[in-house]
């Protein structure tokens, strides 16, 4: 017996019920059938410190839609999920928790081994919370295969890659300036530095020539670094300074003398055109220093304090770098060497993890030589073996790869993959996949491992294949590699996507994925980037609690990947899709009530009404378009097709028509019920990838064919395919005309405020024979429409429009509704005239504002555009009022 759903839809109850059902029945477990095609996605691994944010929810939804769709289409499906150990972020979190203890505990006091044990303990207790949050979204990961970048098998893959690259000469140690975080005490890549516009000063400082011939004025934002200066550079062609090249100047606040050099790197337009060269504390200066064989003295230590060495005067030693800046400026003023202190805003680099200002710092780091590794990865995208969607992001990738620098892969942390390089007592440096007991070159047993760990992105670069068991030739590698799709954010194309491609091509001789989907960024409603630190982020869990998971998923799907890549969050969009879920649930209530005791059987095609043929045509055309849209990753189009068919055509039109048809059918024919069952059951399957919870709930109650009766979940039912028997262009055209005529009548009633209870005469005039026949065939639908409330419908060839009758054209059909007997014309005219006066007053007010040149000059463009749109709307309202008055005065 068919079970009907509750009268009110409560998302939280339905979501809890089916989440439990899915996990109790282990429906997400991997099951490989060798006869099926394959489809696989590797989830971008969230940090173990992470909580679900809008980006996770959006990206997770887009991937889950594909996974659920392909599962229903009969594919072997693998959605490989897991977490990244997140070296810096995790270490920060655990260190903070240790400092909160009483008494506080410092990492370096407890030692590396004990600290690592604390991190593992934290990971077991809290490191997987994001996956509990993902469950709220209804994602269908292969939950029995969650991976972690510190799993033993994964570590094996990392060390195989590292040792291979080291032995082939791709990994080397270099001493150069890197981005350094004085808080995290580690180097960072350029991509891990966030540049924020910061107000400061450009200090103009005199460096006086030792021969008394004048001074070079140098502009700098960081006077604390002047103690590390080794030269002053000018452009060789700069006429102002040519005479100084080869001379020496006195370094302010010290007794040191510096050479003046010529170098084309100097920008003659910046500052004064004279540049202080501090090789140990500026990456570009370091390159200048290398060209001119200059020394590289370090004057700021790893914690951002001034060193107590021979380069830093005693009064500045051990000062914090910013305190030193203040003290140095005061001393420069005292010695009359500070020429100018100019307010200046520039992009200052900050650590993306802790927001500390980055310090360029000269240090030994391990690098990967990139040029040769990048070439085949560039070729893979140029030849479109890897395709970016939207395609414009291919240029982002190619620009980065064609200009790629060597990759700094070492981090001065304790949490992560320890760099597998050991140095023996005799100085031999070798890489080993497993901890060695003796040196491979001299048999020395005294070996010391490098203290650094690998950049987290090094391990993440192996994610698509290391999670499948590489370097072993596993069944999963054979079945699911390369993966089909990667869906990710644009900001990690360079950080991650590029590295996965070159690592995969190098070590598996295959591309890691065929398609790269770049999803949009969801911004705040005023167009700002969401950030927890700025307290402006939206918690998707709050939105799920308020609107339901299915409404959130439909919203994310509607954004797609091919439209605007910066999307402003609008809570009202979620409310719209919550209403859609309610609409669907209420439709389910009606349909399941009608189908109580019903057993599915074949439709009698010979007995199909025009409305039956029409809805079957729209349903099957919709299915065809939706599958095509998903195959092309046009999520937004697929969502729109499903939404429009469900809400407008099925719920608002056919269900109303079906009520009338069922009242006239004999109990044993049940033709309309057969159509309702066919379409509603199939619609649940069609909507399931986007809205898994509500469709599971309703589908579980709908009468099913014996083929589906024993399935424990809708996700194992086949995705519906269009039935070409019911593609009927003629029915679509004919019923389409009837629908438009009915809408026209409704519009006239609404425009002229015809009381809902009032019946009206309707005159339909056309000289087109085919349209006249269609109107006659569809006359019953017009007569029975509850909103038209027609007392009489007449179809004529060339009707005369009576006085005070409203008209609209639908194709060549003139829809005529006499109004004189159904509304109080004088009262209606009075109301319209009052409305006209009010609108004209509003137009005058808005027009005055727009005519104000001062306002246009000062107001933001968005505000001006908004007011211009308001004026256009008011003018449209006024035109409508004039048209209505003309009808009433006729």
Protein architecture, described:
With 890 residues, the chain is of the alpha/beta class. Helices cover 43% and strands 17% of the residues. The chain has 28 helices and 29 strands. The strands form ten sheets. It has a four-stranded antiparallel sheet with strand order 6-5-14-16. The model has no long low-confidence stretch (mean pLDDT 93).
Mean pLDDT comes to 93
For the largest beta-sheet, the strand count, sense and barrel status come to:
4 strands, antiparallel
Mind telling me the C-alpha Rg?
Answer: 36 Å
How many strands appear in the DSSP assignment?
A: 29
Helices, by number, come to 28
Q: Name the beta content range.
A: 15-25%
List unreliable stretches of 5+ residues.
none
Oligomer: single chain
Q: What fraction, in percent, of the residue positions are helical?
A: 40-55%
Widest sheet: strand order? 6-5-14-16
Q: What is the end-to-end distance?
A: 60 Å
Q: Supply the helix-strand structural class.
A: alpha/beta
> What sort of overall outline do the alpha carbons produce when their principal axes are compared?
globular
Summarize the structure.
With 890 residues, this protein is α/β, with parallel strands linked by helices.
């Amino acid at each position: 017996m068919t079970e009907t759903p509750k009268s009110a839809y409560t998302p939280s109850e339905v979501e809890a019920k089916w989440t439990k059902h899915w996990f109790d029945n282990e429906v997400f477990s991997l099951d490989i059938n060798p006869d099926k095609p394959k489809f696989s996605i590797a989830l971008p691994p969230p940090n173990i410190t992470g909580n679900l944010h809008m980006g996770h929810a959006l990206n997770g939804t887009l991937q889950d839609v594909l996974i659920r769709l392909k599962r229903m289409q009969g594919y072997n499906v693998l959605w490989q999920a897991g977490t990244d150990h997140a070296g810096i972020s995790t270490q920060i979190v655990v260190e903070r928790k240790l400092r909160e203890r009483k008494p506080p505990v410092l990492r370096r006091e407890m030692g590396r081994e004990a600290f690592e044990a604390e991190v593992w303990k934290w990971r077991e207790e809290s490191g997987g919370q994001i996956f509990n949050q993902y469950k709220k979204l209804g994602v269908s990961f292969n939950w029995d295969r969650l991976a972690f970048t510190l799993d033993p098998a994964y570590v094996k893959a990392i060390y195989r890659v590292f040792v291979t690259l080291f032995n082939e000469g791709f990994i080397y140690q270099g001493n150069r300036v890197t981005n350094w975080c004085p808080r995290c005490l580690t180097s960072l890549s350029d991509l891990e530095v966030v540049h924020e516009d910061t107000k400061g000063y450009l200090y103009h400082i005199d460096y006086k020539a030792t021969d008394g011939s004048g001074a070079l004025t140098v502009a700098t934002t960081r006077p604390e670094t002047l103690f590390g200066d080794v030269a002053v550079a000018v452009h060789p062609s700069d006429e102002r300074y040519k005479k100084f090249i080869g001379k020496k100047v006195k370094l302010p606040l010290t007794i040191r003398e510096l050479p003046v050099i010529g170098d084309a790197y100097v920008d003659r337009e910046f500052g004064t055109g004279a540049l202080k060269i501090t090789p140990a504390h500026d990456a570009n200066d370091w390159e200048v220093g290398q060209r001119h064989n200059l020394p590289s003295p370090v004057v700021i230590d790893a914690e951002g304090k001034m060193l107590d060495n021979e380069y830093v005067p005693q009064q500045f030693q051990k000062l914090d770098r910013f305190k030193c800046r203040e003290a140095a400026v005061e001393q420069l003023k005292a010695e009359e060497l500070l020429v100018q202190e100019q307010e200046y805003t520039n992009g200052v680099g900050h650590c993306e993890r802790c927001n500390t200002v980055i310090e360029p710092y000269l240090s030994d780091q391990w690098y990967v030589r990139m040029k040769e590794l990048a070439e085949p990865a560039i070729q893979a995208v140029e030849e479109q073996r890897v395709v970016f969607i939207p395609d414009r992001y291919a240029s982002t990738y190619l620009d980065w790869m064609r200009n790629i620098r060597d990759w700094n892969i070492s981090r001065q942390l304790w949490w992560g993959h320890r760099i597998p390089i050991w140095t023996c007592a005799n100085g031999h440096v070798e890489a080993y996949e497993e901890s060695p007991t003796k040196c491979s070159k001299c048999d020395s047993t005294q070996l010391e491992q490098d203290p650094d760990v690998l950049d987290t992105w090094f391990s993440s670069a192996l994610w698509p294949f290391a999670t499948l068991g590489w370097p072993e030739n596993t069944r999963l590698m054979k079945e699911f590699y390369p993966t089909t799709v990667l869906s990710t954010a644009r900001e990690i194309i360079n950080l991650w996507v590029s590295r996965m491609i070159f690592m995969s091509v190098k070590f598996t001789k295959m591309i890691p994925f065929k398609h790269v989907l770049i999803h949009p960024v969801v911004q705040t409603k005023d167009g700002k980037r969401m950030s927890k630190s700025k307290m402006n982020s939206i918690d998707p869990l709050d939105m799920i609690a308020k609107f339901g998971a299915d409404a959130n998923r439909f919203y994310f799907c509607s954004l797609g990947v091919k439209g605007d890549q910066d999307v402003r969050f609008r809570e009202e969009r979620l409310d719209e899709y919550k209403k859609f879920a309610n609409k669907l649930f209420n439709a389910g209530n009606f349909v399941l009530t009608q189908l109580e005791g019903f057993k599915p059987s074949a439709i009698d095609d010979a007995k199909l009404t025009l409305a039956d043929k029409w809805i079957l045509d729209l349903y099957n055309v919709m299915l065809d378009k939706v599958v095509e849209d998903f195959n092309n990753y046009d999520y937004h189009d697929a969502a729109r097709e499903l939404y429009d068919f469900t809400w407008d055509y099925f719920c608002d039109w056919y269900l109303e028509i079906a009520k009338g048809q069922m009242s006239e059918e004999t109990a044993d024919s049940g033709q309309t019920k057969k159509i309702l069952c066919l379409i509603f059951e199939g619609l649940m399957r069609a909507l399931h990838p986007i809205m898994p919870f509500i469709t599971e709930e309703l589908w579980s109650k709908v009468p099913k064919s014996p083929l589906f009766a024993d399935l424990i979940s809708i996700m194992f039912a086949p995705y519906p395919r269009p039935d070409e028997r019911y593609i009927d262009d003629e029915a679509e055209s004919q019923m389409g005309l009837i629908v438009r005529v009915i809408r026209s009548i409704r519009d006239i009633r609404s425009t002229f405020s015809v009381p809902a209870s009032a019946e009206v005469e309707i005159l339909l005039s056309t000289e087109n024979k085919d349209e006249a026949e269609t109107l006659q065939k569809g006359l019953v639908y017009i007569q029975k429409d509850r909103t038209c409330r027609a007392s009489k419908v007449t179809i004529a060839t060339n009707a005369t429009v009576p006085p005070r009758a409203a008209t609209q054209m639908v194709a060549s059909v003139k829809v005529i509704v006499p109004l004189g007997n159904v509304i109080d014309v004088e009262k209606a005219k009075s109301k319209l005239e009052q409305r006209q006066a009010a609108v004209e007053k509003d137009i005058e007010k808005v027009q005055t504002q727009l005519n104000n040149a001062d306002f246009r000059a000062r107001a933001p463009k968005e505000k001006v555009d908004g007011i211009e749109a308001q004026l256009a709307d008011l003018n449209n309202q006024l035109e409508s009022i004039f048209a209505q008055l003309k009808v009433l005065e006729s």
